[in-house]
Description:
The structure holds 2 protein chains of 2 kinds.
Chain A: H1 7-10, E1 12-13, E2 17-21, H2 30-35, E3 68-72, H3 114-123, H4 139-142, E4 149-154, E5 157-162, E6 167-172, E7 189-195, E8 198-204, E9 210-211, E10 218-219, E11 224-233, E12 236-244, E13 253-262, H5 278-281, H6 284-292
Parallel strand pairs in A: 6-7
Antiparallel strand pairs in A: 1-2, 3-4, 3-13, 4-5, 5-6, 7-8, 8-11, 9-10, 11-12, 12-13
Chain B: E1 8-13, H1 27-30, E2 31-47, E3 54-60, E4 66-72, H2 76-81, E5 94-102, E6 108-116
Parallel strand pairs in B: 4-6
Antiparallel strand pairs in B: 1-6, 2-3, 2-5, 3-4, 5-6
Amino acid sequence: xxxxxxxxRATLALVTVAVTIxxxxxxxxxxxxxxxxxxxxxPRKADGTVDMAAAAPRMLDxxxxxxxxxxxxxxxxxxxxxxxxxxxNDIGSSRYMANMGADMKDGLPYQPWLVPIVKERxxxxxxxxxxxxxxxxxxxxAYGLPHLLKFIHKPGILVVLDEMNAGYxxxxxxxxxxxxxxxxxxxxxxSAKWSGDTLIIDSIGFRDDTWIDWNGSVVTxxxxxxxxxxxxxxxxxxIKVTVDDPKAYTKPWTVTLKxxxxxxxxxxxxxxxxxxxxxxxxxLEAKEKASAK
Amino acid sequence: xxxxxxxxxxxxxxxxxxLPAVAHHSFPAQYDINKPITLTGKVTKVEWTNPHIFIxxxxxxxxxxxxxxxxxxxxPNSLIRQGWKRDSLKPDDVVTMxxxxxxxxxxxxxxxxxxxxxxxxxxxxTGGDAPPTPAK
Lengths: 293, 136
């Protein structure tokens, strides 16, 4: 079992955090060995590193299996060491985490009413962000936040577990129709079908003012979102996202989000409300109470 | 395996990134990365909780008294992955903490590094998420 404190593991470059260890380590207790438990079925090269380019695994029905633990693969900062598997110590964030329209020449095509709102949220550093208040992260946003996602995939359903706040999302692949009058939900409602080896996921039924990035860009109840999800090889997921939300945007827009595989790691409790202090320390509670009167 | 020599654990946060230091919340709204601070004192309390671990340290002031400072760290999951345990720091441990001062002048620091003499390895990160510097 990999030694948790090996020098190889000890020096890691995070997207926004670097950890330097100047000396060597102690052995891991049994509890820590659960944390670094070796993932089964990982294709490896002769040197023991993960073969990221190996063929993607398949389910018994022959379709690509998206199961695994994933982290953002559109890095905000290129990862030191190149395109290698994550191990939980190098959880990344996406450059789309801050701005989903980062690669669009003119940014996201906001409707006029949304422009000043996004401008204010960006200027006040997302102080009203639902994420800060420990509310669920929307699935589009979760692809780019530095929290592990665990995909559990079998014929009929793809379940995504979000380490942050023990969140979950269900994508049904049993050909069910989307609901006609959905009650708005934090992750909406998702139904998918295969087109070759690409899973086409259609989702509706979102809450108004659902944040999709730190700038405060949103999707609304009117949004329809299509994800074209594929696993080109063992180490990567590619998700071409098209958002059609005429209430929030003047036209549909598309972005391709990527995920990188994480091995020999496991989800660990990250329940935000346990001891969230930012709101209290910034005096936001008092301000909110005052403005509510 | 017996413990090795003490280590300086550095988790540099956001130095070379376009994003400011990582946090569950807005780092730049709460902390000033241009106000680095280094303090040494005795640990009085460890809050091993999500979304951020807090270490409280009694630090001597220049008036002969003692002030209790709060140091915000990463979450338990990211520190556990770096090898931390809940009792890696305990009350009465002497530590040197380095980080960025809170903007509001309170005795609060977003910690970047922990140094403990003569103790076992510590490794940690403030792995998390934070909004970018405001768009210009």
